[in-house]
Amino acid sequence: MTNQWNPPGVPPQGPPAGPPSGPPAQGPFGAGFGPNAGAPPQVPVGPPPKSRSKGKVVVGAVAAVAVLAAGGFAVTRIVGDGGTSEPAGQATPEELGEKMLVAFDDSDALAAAELLLPSERRVLTDPAFDLVDELERLEVLSDVDLEQVNGVDVELSDTDVIVEETNADDIRHVTITGTAEVTVSGDEIPTGPIIEDELDEAEVSTEDSTTTEPFELPLVGIEQDGEWFLSAGYTIAESIRQLDVDYDTGEIPDIPSVEEAIAPVGADSPDGAVEAMLDAVADKDVEAMIAQLDPGEFGALQRYAPMFIDDAQEGLDEEDFSLSITESDLRVEGDGDTREVFVEDIAIEIVENGDETYVQYSDGCVTVESGESTDEVCFTGDEVTAQLDDALDELENPEPAEDFIAAVQDAFSDFEVPGIVVTEVNGKWFVSPIGTFDGALLNVFEALDADELREIIETGKEFYSSMADDVDYGD
């Protein structure tokens, strides 16, 4: 166990701490380390709310979207086919923090992305590339600069890198601090015609704005093959671990060792990965579920799972229900090390407190049998349209809603329901939840074109306005 620092102004709880017997004490990770340990991390994102006009808030939001998109696109240039640079592991955690500060100071998304754990860069590669591509095609973004985040200039001063040990030799807390002067140039943000039209209509000012704020950003460095990388997954895991404090002793649990981690298992085929996950769910086997997850996405979860898995399994075992999959028909599409698995048909029997329920999905419809009742819900166009018509009958002025619904239905008439994404890692196939989400998101964008998006926006505004007009706010 490791001692946890108390936030400033909060007296220690429990008995006095004895002399340290391990690595240096750790602060509450999500709250930062060093001289400001315990204080919420301050990351400059714009002028203080009280001094911002409504227009600047909108411009700031647009800037944030553009920054995220540009950063994601930059990642793809590093690790995608034909990438321009290689992973930049560092010799020490201190060098890792210094490199990140340089990348921030230069507004260099490429350099920052190079510092990520290789497996995490792999997870971001294709989805980020495709997402920015789609946003440009839909005229939401335009001319995204790959070398520098457009419209955002950052100047850092009084910077420092604070590295703290943990009980694990391959994990370090790396906190970067300093003062950031951030200038947002509204005219240079890579917004496309659709966003620009909305800003013009709202008469939003795109004037430059500058703010200067101190910041303290806690990150986690991971050693892999003798080099140090930053990790988003381990940063999240460490933030959660710091919350698991024993308030009697002031200690937090140790990080499990590599040997204690749940080993990824996977399956021999793409559909086998989904079947193995379904079996694990049916068996209520938490460890088996975690072992079937893509280790590139959930390596941190697999490492930290021993901290909570016994409690999770015990809680699941105490639930009076059982689940069995009586029928399944899966279809695999794609090639290479990423495939999609589509559920054509699946039947599930659920027993809870002695009551039996049968659920079956087939041909776009879900049938539920419980006792003597049977219900069916279909996701086909005709069924959805009928349900919407019933809802519209309740509106005093249904025309704006009808126009909005028609615009959405027309735009997504060619929408393809995504499958479950699975990935091959070291010869085994794993379920990829993040890849599945990314695929679903991209399918939404790919179903649209710029004119359809404009029509959805315009009819959506009319619908919102009509609903607002119908609201009785009282006297």
Care to give the gist of this entry?
With 475 residues, the chain is α+β, with helices and mostly antiparallel strands.
Helix content: 25-40%
Largest sheet: 7 strands, antiparallel
Distance between the termini: 60 Å
User: What is the overall shape?
Assistant: globular
Give the oligomeric state: single chain
Number of strands: 13
Query: β content, as a range?
Result: 15-25%
**Count of alpha/pi helices:** 14
CA radius of gyration is 26 Å
Low-confidence runs (pLDDT<50, min 5 residues)? 2-28, 30-85
Mean pLDDT: 81
Element string (H = helix, E = strand): EHHHHEEHEEHEHHHHEEEEEHHEEHH
Account of the protein in words:
- By secondary structure, this protein is of the alpha+beta class.
- Among the domains are: 2-14 and 27-252, no CATH class; 383-470, no CATH class.
- Helix content is 39%, strand content 23%.
- It has helices spanning 54-79, 93-105, 109-114, 118-137, 193-201, 232-243, 270-282, 286-291, 295-304, 309-318, 381-392, 399-411, 433-446, 450-470; strands spanning 2-3, 152-165, 171-184, 209-224, 227-230, 251-252, 321-333, 338-352, 355-362, 365-370, 373-378, 420-425, 428-431.
- The strands form 3 sheets. Strands 7, 8, 9, 10, 11, 12 and 13 form a 7-stranded antiparallel sheet that branches.
- Helix 12 (399-411) runs antiparallel to helix 14.
- The longest helix has 26 residues, at 54-79.
- The protein starts with a strand and ends in a 5-residue tail after the last helix.
- Residues 2-28 and 30-85 have low confidence and may be disordered.
